[in-house]
Amino acid sequence: MKWKHFIIGASVGVLVGYVLKERWDKEFISPDKALKNAKKAFQEKGPIDGSWIYTIPQDYEMNGLTYKVYKVGITRKNEDETKQFEVIVDAKTGTILHIDSLSFES
């Protein structure tokens, strides 16, 4: 009888673990979708030359709230000048939370 309880308990544990993993995986949008959202927003104001994304959501604090975000990079040419931007995208909704213009001195 004890083996039966053990097997039932182990089965329930595995099932709960699987359900929680599935829920966690669906909690965030995919990094590809976050990158597409950022690129789409930038392409409305002209072509972009390149892009990148950190694929693991990171903590980001803004206005006293902590968000899970993807960090995206966008490069575009404006006349003869290349500009780079860091875009903070909410990992749950895909909303752009913040954009920083990065400047590099040569």
Q: Which CATH C-level class of the domain at 29-102 is it?
A: Alpha Beta
Q: Main sheet, how many strands, which sense, barrel?
A: 5 strands, antiparallel
- The number of helical segments is 2
- The SS-based structural class is alpha+beta
- Give, in order, the helices and strands: HHEEEEE
Give a verbal description of the structure.
With 106 residues, the chain is of the alpha+beta class. The chain has a domain at 29-102: Nuclear Transport Factor 2, Chain: A, CATH 3.10.450. Helix content is 37%, strand content 38%. The protein is built from two helices and five strands. It has helices spanning 2-27, 31-43, and strands at residues 50-53, 58-62, 65-78, 81-90, 96-102. Strands 1, 2, 3, 4 and 5 form a five-stranded antiparallel beta sheet that branches. It is elongated and about 75 Å long. Pfam families: PepSY. InterPro entries: PepSY. This is Small secreted protein.
Supply database-style keywords.
106 residues, alpha+beta, Nuclear Transport Factor 2, Chain: A, five-stranded antiparallel β-sheet, 5 strands, 37% helix
Short description, anyone?
Residues 29-97 form the PepSY domain. With 106 residues, the protein is of the alpha+beta class.
Strands, helices and their partners?
Elements: H1 2-27, H2 31-43, E1 50-53, E2 58-62, E3 65-78, E4 81-90, E5 96-102
Antiparallel strand pairs: 1-3, 2-3, 3-4, 4-5
Protein name: Small secreted protein
Domain PepSY: 29-97
InterPro entries: PepSY (IPR025711)
